[in-house]
Amino acid sequence: MKEYYLKKADENLPELIYEKIRIASEARELFRGDSIVLDLGDYYVGRFSFVLGYKDMYLDAPVRLCIKFCETKEEIDTDFSTYHGALCASWLQEEIINIDMIGEYKMLRRYAARYIKISVVYTPRILTLSDFVFTSETSADVSSVEKLEIDDLELCLIDKVARNTLKNCMHRVFEDGPKRDRRLWASDFRLQALTNHYTFKNSALVRRCLYLFAAADRSEDGFLPAYLYENPNFFSGTWYLRDFALNYVNALSDYYMHIGDSETFLDIYPVVKEMMEAFAAEIDENGILVTEKQGNIFIDWQGELKKTASLQGVYLYTLEKLSSALARLGHEDAELYNSRYESAKTAALRHLYNANENNFANAYDEYQVNIHSVVWMILGGVVSGEGAWEMLLRVMNDEKCPKIVTPYMNHYLVEAMMKLGKEKEAMEHIKSFWGLMVKQGADAFYEVFVPGHPEVSPYLDPMINSMCHAWSCTPSYFIRKQAQGHL
Ligand code: RAM
After folding, report:
1. Which residue blocks in 43-127 are alpha helix, DSSP H?
2. Which of 159, 291, 367, 409 could form an SS bridge with 300, CB 3.0 to 4.6 Å?
3. 487 has a pLDDT exceeding 50
4. Ligand 1: which of 176, 238, 445 to mutate, judged by most atoms within 8 Å of the beta carbon?
5. What are phi and psi of 303, to 5 degrees?
6. Mutate-to-test residue for ligand 1 from 87, 179, 188, 405, highest number of ligand atoms within 8 A of CB
7. Where does 235-332 have alpha helices with state H?
């Protein structure tokens, strides 16, 4: 089957769309130690070229340049040599190049940038740099996006930045970030696909990614990996995050609900069905999904978080969506997942809900009270209505609760608010969270954003954070979905 799935993935390989971004800049005369900064005018992903020349005298030695691609203005003056984070420093986009001859010089690698800083390390004489061209690439067709018919200018602006984020993460697959990781991650993909259904409508790309995961090697206990590589060779990831595996299932259900392509759904369903058995095997005697290692659950980049209740919520949410997709297809398994949903919900109420305190402080999670559990218990349908809304507000205002760190988890917070019918509050949250990034000058939405804390990084140094990150693109999904509902 693996070969078949890879073949299907290949059939859906998208054409990339290229655009030449001309950079307004005169030819520049530079000598050793000089530097210039080019502004692309917006955030783009692509390749860079320029022309090297000389002023008065031929260059009788190679020229050595340092070229730095910066996602944000702040990055221009950041000294990469001080980097001390946990991920490899080679993600930082800086090249030292030696050029032997005058003429056009094309850099081969792909970069993600708004600004380009060029510093002259060595040159024998005064050189000139001119004809700067950045050729952007993406598999998002911007002409397929419908005009957003709303009066709220702030939301329009947020939608623009959100679309830009998604566009720059769409290539041969939905990448998580064009600067860092540059690969297909299941939970990022699920949110990208959702937003893509309301914006660029590249359903072939969604199909491709669904097939790629279907082709992946599963862990010994039957789970799909959280990520994979596909270029130049297919290679399954080796981290098995339970919530990411569930989000892959959600991506498949969403795809069917939006596109109505039962053929692809049924093609892939056997993989999902087998994996859902692996999940069923991890349900403990109380009916709670328990994985041995907490490290196999993501939920958010929040180090203090206890995650059992959240994971149970993701499981419920997935069962509900899968069962609905199967019911729409008239498939007999709809009932199977529906009954699993009911038992997992009863178990959550019995063993995770704390009636005395009216929260989800439970033994599995060492009685930690956190926002994440409440969000996922709402999304899983365990609590609802005004009671759930009050509970959510209470944990959000509780200083002792571990804070949400990523736009990814903020997506699910907004979705929970929507589910409770709090549309106005959800839109306000989008404005206060994503809108704040826009106010601070973001061209694309960041991987991690904690207002007032630019130092936060899951990798111990914010220098390596991705400043255009796929999982942050979902305001376009919410805003456009809401706008359609009101038409
Ligand atoms: C990071 C990436 C990716 C995310 C994983 C869990 O490495 O940013 O987006 O899905 O973490």
Report:
1. 73-76
2. 409
3. no
4. 176
5. -60, -30
6. 188
7. 242-259, 262-281, 308-329
Instruction: Say how many C-beta atoms besides its own lie within 10 A of residue 400's C-beta.
Output: 8
Question: What is the Cα–Cα distance from 263 to 174, expressed in whole angstroms?
Answer: 22
> How confident is the model over 106-156, as pLDDT tens digits?
999 999 999 999 999 999 999 999 999 999 999 999 999 999 999 999 999
Q: Which residues line ligand 1 (CB under 6 A)?
A: 176, 181, 185, 187-188, 298, 447, 471
Contacts of 225 (CB under 8 A, 6+ apart): 186, 216, 217, 218, 219, 236, 237, 238, 239, 240
Instruction: Tell me the C-alpha distance between 245 and 225, whole Å.
Output: 7
The predicted-structure confidence for 285-342, as pLDDT tens digits, reads as follows 999 999 988 889 999 999 999 999 999 999 999 999 999 999 999 999 999 999 999 9
Residue type for position 124: P
Could you tell me the pTM of the whole model?
A: 0.97
Residue with the smallest CA separation from ligand 1 atom 5 is: 185
What would the pLDDT profile of 27-82 be if each residue is shown by its tens digit?
899 999 999 999 999 999 999 999 999 999 999 999 999 999 999 999 999 999 99
**Cβ neighbours of residue 378 under 8 Å, at least 6 residues apart?**
313, 384, 388, 392, 416, 419, 420
Token output for 178: 């064009």
Relative orientation angle of helices 186-198 and 203-214, to the nearest 10 degrees: 160
Residue 197 has pLDDT above 70, yes or no: yes
Residue 257 one-letter amino acid: M
The gap from C-alpha 472 to its chain's centroid, in whole angstroms, comes to 6
DSSP string spanning 76-103?
HT--GGG---SS-GGGS-EEEEEE-SSE
Whose Cα sits closest to atom 3 in ligand 1?
176
